[in-house]
Amino acid sequence: MDHYTPESFTLTQSVGFAVNKARNLLVAEIDAALKDLGITSQQMGILLSMRDGETQTPFELSKLLGIDTGLMTRMLDKLETKGLLQRARSLEDRRVVNLTLTRAGEKIADELPHIAPVVLNKRLKKFTKSEFQEFRRLLNKFVED
After folding, report:
1. Looking at residue 84, which CATH number applies to its domain?
2. What is the pTM of this model?
3. Residue 120's pLDDT is what?
4. Which residues form the signal peptide (predicted)?
5. Residue 97's pLDDT is what?
């Protein structure tokens, strides 16, 4: 079923516009909340993914976070320069780079679950519990392949 036609489509009424605006608001608010830690919201995703054991390689991170490999490399460079992660070539396959958090990276990653929920809860304060659950369900449906 088509929800838009060339005749009915308007930018500000499109789902893409609303999703992009919501993303931009969250990024700005989370970046502000993370300023004292010296990281960005995108870097937060990397640190949390690694802390939670979801990813160990740049490729896995790129796939999970929906970030192209070039940008991922630049972000990993910054995190490595800050001393938050280390790269090491796999002994089994030299083409694979394994990532590990440093102690400083682990320390910051452990602080993140105390920061991000505050920002998200502020943005979600008008939602009932059932609205929140439905919102998450619909967003997940929207992004699934």
Report:
1. 1.10.10.10
2. 0.86
3. 96
4. none
5. 87
